[in-house]
Amino acid sequence: KVKRANAMAKPQVSPYFETGKRLKDFSVRDLDGNKYKLKDLAGKVVVLNFWFINCAPCRMEIPDLNKVVTKYKNNTDVVFLGIALDDARSLEDFLKDTPFNYNIVSDGRYEASMYGVKSYPTHVILDRKSNIIFHTHGLAANTVHWIDKSIAEGLTGRP
Question: Beta-carbon neighbour count of residue 16 at 10 Å?
Fold first, then answer.
């Protein structure tokens, strides 16, 4: 499976971000009340997923994204944030039946518009210096593979 994913072309980059650039600072709070400020996450690899409940590809990738979260669950240098467009109540209802192991941020329309995100899901991975090392939109067969690969690269600092 990994060999096949490596043989496939890298997923299309999103038009909203630029590889190698620093991400504009943000401050969000997840459903559990934890606050995340990009400047406070320096030194960590940050994995962002812009999504919403009624997005079919977003829902399709959740089980595979959860596997990536599980792989890094003991690594405090990786932070997973799911920036959802939906309100907290809708998300809490949805997450009862469909667990999504990212730190889920509700009402993320402001953050999505701040970055110009208009297509879902959109993924962005930042290295330890908050530089964008991977970004894509939509769901390709190897998207989750590249997310995992980019996290590993972000942790080691090399491809």
Answer: 16
Query: Residues 13-53: pLDDT tens digits?
Result: 999 999 999 999 999 999 999 999 999 999 999 999 999 99
DSSP alpha helix (H) spans, 2-47: 2-7
Cα end-to-end span (Å), the chain: 19
Provide the 3-class DSSP secondary structure of residue 51: strand
Rounded CA-CA distance 128/49 in Å is: 17
Q: What is the pTM of this model?
A: 0.94
DSSP result, 82-110 = EEESS-HHHHHHHHHHS---SEEES-THH
Q: How far is it, in rounded angstroms, from Cα 116 to Cα 122?
A: 11
Question: Rounded to an integer, what distance in angstroms lies between the CA atom of residue 20 and that of residue 13?
Answer: 13
Compute the average pLDDT of residues 51-62. Answer: 98
Helix ranges restricted to H, the chain: 2-7, 56-71, 88-97, 109-115, 143-156
